[in-house]
Amino acid sequence: MVSQGNVEIALKVPVEFVNLPENVKVEGAPSYVEVKLEGAPWVVRKIGVGDVKVQVLLREFSPGERVVSLSSVRVPEGVRVVSVKPDRAKIRIVLLAEKRVPVVVKWKGRMPDSYRVEPIEVKIVGKRSVVSRIKFVKTEPVDPSKSPQEVFVIVPKGVRAIPAKVRVEVE
Question: Are strands 32-39 and 7-18 parallel, antiparallel or unpaired?
Fold first, then answer.
């Protein structure tokens, strides 16, 4: 129930995980929550999404599932949080790994006698269980008659390659 003289608004607010190490990924969390706020009309009318923050501070990063509260909401002075929906989420902590792997060119047709790839290695980042099994990455098919070309390297879902493209030049 809204207090006398106050108004209520609902905002779609992004959920932000703070203090996450680079080697940790959070899966299963909602991207947004609905936050209902109450306050004086002249205060509430000025509120934008950037003024309201839903932050989750994880203190424990071991892999696995856990339930976290989404009700830690920062709001401007003079505003009261009425509700957060959902107010909890079941998340999964996944440890990420990274390593450097060689790039193997996949050719359309016959492989040329001489070619150059830059860079010859890329860094891959993803779930430890997936990254540990990758020994190399292949490029998209390269037509040797169209040199030089920039092509993407192909990685499994959930894995990033840095850089994502390599340059292939037939000599």
Answer: antiparallel
The answer, yes or no, to whether residue 166 has pLDDT greater than 70, is yes
Q: Which fold has domain 96-170?
A: RNA Polymerase Alpha Subunit; Chain A, domain 2 (2.170.120)
> What does the buried/exposed string (b/e) look like for 18-40 if buried means 16 or more CB atoms within 10 Å of the residue's CB?
eeeeeebbbeebeeebebebbbe
> Which amino acid would we find at residue 10?
A
Query: pLDDT tens across 61-104, in order?
Result: 788 899 999 999 999 999 999 999 999 999 999 889 999 999 99
| Residue corresponding to tokens 């540990």 | 132
- For residue 41, with 0-12 CB atoms within 10 Å meaning exposed, 13-18 middle and 19 or more buried, which class applies? exposed
Which single residue is written with the structure tokens 């193997």?
Answer: 104
Q: Which fold has domain 7-86?
A: RNA Polymerase Alpha Subunit; Chain A, domain 2 (2.170.120)
